[in-house]
Structure formats: structure tokens, C-alpha cells
Amino acid sequence: MFPTPIQKASAPARLAYQIALPIALVIWLFPLIGVAVTSLRPASDLAAGNYFGMPSSIAYENYASVFRDSPIGWYILNSFKVTIPTVIGAVGLSCLTGFALAVYGFRANLWVFFAFVAGNFIPFQILMVPVRELTLKAGLYDTTLGLVLFHVAFQTGFCTLFMRNFIKGLPFALIESARVEGVSEWQIFRHIVLPLMRPAIAALSVLVFTFVWNDYFWATVLVQGQHAMPVTAGLYALNGQWVAAWHLVSAGSIIAALPPVLMFFLMQRHFIAGLTLGATKG
Amino acid sequence: MPHDPQPARFWKRNQMKIAPYAFLAPGAVMFLIYVLIPIVQSIWISFQDWDGLGPKTWVGLANYVELMDDDTFYVALKNNLLWLGLYLLAIPMGLAAALFLNQNVWGIRLYKSLFFFPFVISQVVVGLMFTWFYAPDFGLFSQLIKWLTGSEVAILADERYVTYGIIAAGLWPQTAYCMILYLTGLNNLNFEQIEAARMDNARGWRLLRHVILPQLAPATFIAMVVTVIGALRSFDLVSIMTAGGPYGSSQVLSYFMYEQALSEYGYRMGYGAAIAVVLFLIMMVFITLFIMRMIAQERNR
Amino acid sequence: MAEVSLSNVKKDFGAISIIKGIDLEIKDGEFCVFVGPSGCGKSTLLRMIAGLEDISQGALRIGGRDMTRVGPSDRGVAMVFQSYALYPHMTVGENIGFGLRMTGHDKAEIAKRTAAAAKMLQLEPLLARKPGQLSGGQRQRVAIGRAIVRNPEVFLFDEPLSNLDASLRVQMRGEISRLHQDLGATMIYVTHDQVEAMTMADKIVVLSAGRIEQVGSPLELYHRPKNLFVAGFIGSPKMNFIAVDARPHDGGIEVTLPGGAVLQLAGSLAAAAKMTLGLRPEHASATGAGDAVLPAKVHLAEHLGSETLFFVGLADGTEIAVKADGLAPERPGDSMQIGFPARACHLFNADGQAVLNGDLTR
Description:
- The complex is a heterotrimer.
- Chain A is mainly alpha-helical.
- Chain A has 15 helices and no strands.
- Chain A is flat and about 75 Å long.
- Chain B is mainly alpha-helical.
- Chain B has helices at residues 6-45, 62-68, 71-87, 90-101, 108-120, 123-134, 140-149, 162-187, 191-199, 204-215, 217-233, 236-241, 253-262, 269-300, and strands spanning 48-49, 57-58.
- The longest helix of chain B has 40 residues, at 6-45.
């Protein structure tokens, strides 16, 4: 283990470490803590200049009023309408493409693979004008479906990289053994490889959920009106309305951040497995 | 051995040839339509004068020529380089955080998760948090500066500091990302090698430098990739925190492009596309380096 | 009838030639072992018979039908992989029946065949378990069971025992041999372990660098190796090789051994030449009984209980191994007299080809 385990250090060093941990955490998360506290601060505190002291009372009504007086509930719903189909679509498609690239040695294999990988890294701006055009022409501008289709296509790049490497890690003899037994290629995919991909599917699902939920750029490019706006773009719009109403902005921020945060905590191991793909080998 | 009747045989005989393309097709078609073709279209549009609605007019390199004379372009370019340079700090900072947290004490798992928190939050929320943090008069950071220097600084309204302020906000989640990459790397170290090095009397900094870091090279590579990409993609924070202001001083290429092509400043799709192409070319330098490394790895398999 | 016949079979990966032209006939019901050092192409050759690798050139016939371009599932072969290739998410029963289920056999038939295979391999109590809960030997049996249910005409084994520990390997060796007797099917078995080859095979094919070095029964290869490679590969501990001067003499061959001792061998030789004399450790005598006796110094003694293996240095420094009685008293540094029996000696020319086989079966 590196660094040397603290258990081997002297008692004062151990104590110092135990004290340093929470202090470092509070400093590190200070902006977040500040916002969380502000979201529960009554408006009167802000008016009185009490920005950082203890709130005079806990104002849950900030949250109530955000939901009551703004369409944030609707934005959240839109975000789900974009995020969940995207997760299903991108993960589903990439199971297929990943299988194709991992199992078959056809001629263009590596080139197709690198096209997917490179596609991941490009700046969104190079896609913006044509994708907006395409979405407009298809009559999907300002709809959640328009966002879903783009996100599915784009995330498929990343997911393919992940799935392909995952399937490459499975023993190839499993596939060969099935081939000798007369199992068709589709059956191999369906009955042998797919059941073994569960951890990869879980990891990618959380990851894509977070990426797409947090997307702001495409939400502003492909959506204009409230009825299809996801919560990221919605929050920005609300920020314009709530000038200096920091308690409301804070409450809105917390609401917008909550779903991916919950997702992260529930599926932490999968999330990190997905994110750190390739960080340990190769 | 039961043998299949004739009709089934075509598929059986040829499935090894057909299957890869059948599996590939749905994803590849989507990717082609939404990613690969638009890249080509953007390059094409960058040679046009186009408002997004009317007819396109071929103007050749005019958009690029105009770009060369556009002061905002140079500001954006300079800021992008600043982003790139400073964003890389996330890597050593992430490593430091990972080394700090790579202990086995009670509750450490929760600590690690909480340290990682900023990465999970939308950049829109991060932007709003830091805007509030930097707010003049009451923002905590402004207060701190005032307490330290006696003078008040409105970070996001000051041309001298605004880009640094935004980058600092970006470093927060990015450091968390690099940290998690390094934590995973540290978890997969070859312990025998470390023990051997310790027997050879290597410790502390020298152990880190000569034994640990080489083993962490894959994590460092991924951290480099995501950090460089993140720096060049910086859009959300600029849009949320300053919209490129004040007076365009926090402009970056990605936001500049968006502003030219889509905002109230006019629907100059061709000009915007030209900016996007420049950004794309800068990114291609890095993408090519990454892919070359990946090809080398694939060959070694 | 499922004889397997390969004629001039070749395999190229790009410009590199892996299999350089193999002609081989394997009779119906025969147990044929491909053996050779790693990288010799034995596994590739097996995979070509299975249909997992394309055949670049030449023809493969199984049971008289041309299978060169036929897919793996239509060749009537079943394969047992080195890694067993059990599907980790299926139970033992599902693993065994999977191929049948996918190829549309009805449930009753699958159940019947699975039960029969499980009975034959004593897997009945394990049918509901997942592969992760099995020991190595049990996994190996499941892999074999998966092959059996398909009633193949030819079984292919790719180093199936190399992941097992030594004692299990001996046991599984016996089980596979028994299975061969019970089923009477043609079996082709790849291994790098010459002991496995010797103990199991009806016919051994020794491969090296993509070519066949020799084909024959185990005893044929042991007693009449065609060349230095086979002589060195078959038998353990391996055959001793000693550089000698050989010349025609009196209708026979006379060789001068290190230290000057002279040995008369049968056979004939056209002219004097430098040659390599081969003598197996078990044929050399540690008590000095033989047609030529050489003084030697003990370098190392390995006491195995039932026997002792001496590594001794001859006059010119050549080290040879000699098998002796388990109670032999000599210790490193001691002197010994090593006897060379003429009728056990092999002689190889400068090209490594056998000029004379000291065939004790004759």
C-alpha cells in the first residue's frame, strides 16, 4: 500500500490525520455546503445581510416555493424524459457495436473502433450547426425526442469503447466453444455474452445517466421552450428570473443536482468502475 | 448429427461474414448521422455565408480571413490556452488528494465519495455555486480577499481575474475526477514491487517518483486525456458565470462559436462553423496523439 | 466411420507460415496425440480441424467428407478447451445442454442426453451448481460432458489438463482414456507434455515449427526416434547426447567415446564422420556393466527413493544423466564407472537424422 498505512505511524500522526480528514472535507465541499445552507435560509436573513452565519430558522418553504412558483418540477420531468431513453438507447446500441468490434476480426474493425473513440473527444461545437439543422428538418426541434436521438448517437461512441474493451476481457474460448456446438452468432450474443455484460451495463447506465442529466450545451441548442427544457437549461433560465434571490437559486441548484447524486450514491461501485475504465491497465 | 434443411443453410454458411455488420449497423448508422457526417457538414458550412434560414452563399475562406482579424478570436484563443495550462493542475492536485485519502481508516469510503462529489454535479450548478461564492459584497471569497488585502475585488466583473475565477470553478470537479482515477490506480499497485523498493531503502518522495508514478502511468494518461478534452470543451461554466464577459474578456472558442452562430448577436452559422473548425483542428492534434498511443497498445496486445 | 485425414494442410497468418504442410491419417476410433514444444503449431492445427481457424491451403476430410470449408458446427466434432470455457452464468446442467437447446433439440431429448453424460462422468450431484462452485477436475468433467452430449464423431482436446495440479492430472488422464474405450470415438488430443502423450496415445504426432517430425505409436517413438528432435523430446529424463567420432569398421560402426573408450555398434556407415551418440539415462549403467565403460565424476545426485538420478561428467566435460538404484551410495565428487550397452545406443548424423536406432524391442 502507498502511502504507508497511517496505522503504522505514531499516535500523534494518526490523530492529526483523523482531524485533518473532516477539516479537508469541509474546505473541499465549502461551495456545496454554502449552497445547501443557503437553500434553507429564510429570505429575511439575506435581506438582513446574514449570508454566511447560522440561518435564523430552517426555511423548508424555499423548496416548496421553488416547486410552486417555478416550472422546475416540469424541467425535472423533462430531464428524466431525455435521460432514461438515452440510457436505454445508448447502452443497448453499444452492446451490439461493442460485441461486433470485440468478437469479429473484420477488415475495418480497428478503423471503426477508432472512429467511435475519436468521435468521443471532438468539441460539440463542430456538430452544433448541422445537428440543429437536422433536428429542425426532422421536426424534432424543441422536443425531448430530438435531444434523445442526439444523445443516444453521441454516447454510443463512448459506450462502444467501454463495451468493446469489456467483451475483449471475456475469455474468447466461451464464444469458440459455443460456435463448435452449433450456436448461432445471435444466440452467442444473446445467451452467452449479454448475461456476462451485466456489470458493464450497470456501470455505463449510471455514467450515461449522469452525463446526459448534466448536459447543458445541447439543452440550449436543441430546445427553446419550457415544455421540453431539461433542468440544467431550466435552472439557468430561472437564475435570470430570480436575480439575487439566492435562497431560491440554491434550492433550485440542489434539486437539479439531486438525481445524479442519488444515482451516484446508490450505484457508486458501478459508477467508479465505469469512470476509471483503463486507468489501471494498458 | 442432424443436418439443417437447405433454406437455413445460407444464413448458417454466411453468418460469420454478415454478423459483424449486422451487429454494428444500428449504432454505426446513428453515429454516422449525428456525429461523423455533421463534422463534414460543418467544415462545408464554414466556407459559406449563412444565417441558418436563407440560402447559403459560398464565400470561400472569407470566414477564416475575418476570424484572423477578429480581436475576440485572439482573446478566446489566449483564454483557451490558459484553460489548457491551468486545467492540467487538476492532475497533480488529484494525485495529492488521492494520496491523502488512500488510507484504511474508519469511514474512509464515505470520505472518498464525498470528495468525489463535485464531479457528479452539473456544471450549471457548479457555475451558480461559484458565482455566489465570488459575489461582490457578500460572497465568501470576496470577503476573504477583502480581509487579506483590504481592497474589494469583484472577480467575475474584473477583466484581469475573470478567466482565472472560472477556471478555478472548473478545477473543482476536474480535480475530483483525477482523484478518483488515481485512487483506482493506487488500488491496483503491484505491492511486491513496492515492498522490494522499501527493502532497497526507497521511501517517501523517491518511492513515489521512481516506483509509484511509473505504475500509475495509465491513470495519468487517462487523466491527461479527460483534462485536455475538458479544458477545450469548457462551455457550460463560461456560459453560466459570465457569458464571455465582461467585454468578452472571458471568451473561449466554444462559447464564442455558440454566440456567433446562435445568440442574439446574429445567426452567423458560417462564421460560427469556421470557429468550430479551428477548435476542432486544435482538438485533433490531441485526439491524434491519444489514438496513436491507443493503436500502439492494440498492436502490443 | 470418422477417420480424419489431412493432406498438405497449411496455415499462414499474413506472411508468416504457421503450419507448413501437414499430411496425416487418423483412423476411426484412434486416440491421436499432437505433441510438441509451445509455438510448434499443435493447437493451431487442432483449431483448424475444429473449424475455428481457416485452412489456408490443403484439404481436410472427416469421415470421408471434405470439411475444408465447412463451419465448425457442421463438422461433427466437439472440442474441450484448455480453459474449459464453461459459461459462468449457467448451471452445470445448463452448460451441458446449452448447445442442444440452441440447435433446437426438444427438451426430453436434452434431458435424456444430459442425464446420460452426467452419469458417465459422475456429475449427477453437481448438475444444479454453477461452474464457480466446482473444483478444477469437476470443471474439466463438465467440459467433457458438454462434448459428449453432442454425440460427436471426433473429440478434440486442447491441452485439457494443463490447468490441473499434478495428482488430478494423473486421475483425469485415466478418465479420458477410459472414456475413449467406452465411446470408441476418434479423439485428437493436444499437449506439450510428453508423459500425457506416451500414456494416452494410440498414435503420437510430434510437431515442431509447423511440421511433423515423426508419427508413430508411443513405443515406436521411444525406441526408434527418427531424429535428434524426437529423441530429445520423447522420454523423461531426456536422452543423453554425446559427440563422438564414428567410422566404418568390420561391417559395423566403431565410435570413439570421450576419454578414448571404443564402442562397436551394428549397422553400416559409408565414411568416417563426427556424429552424436544418444543413450537414455535408464539404459546407461551406473555399475559399469556394458560394452564400453567410461570413468566419470558425480556432479549431482537426485535421490527419488525408488531410483537415483546421477548427473556425471565424462572425461571431456560432457554431462550425462544416469538412472541408478534408489540405494546407490555415490555422492557428488565421487568417481563412477558408466557402462554403455551397444544395443541401446542411437547414432545421429550431422543433420540430426538417425543413422542407427538402438532398438531394444528388436
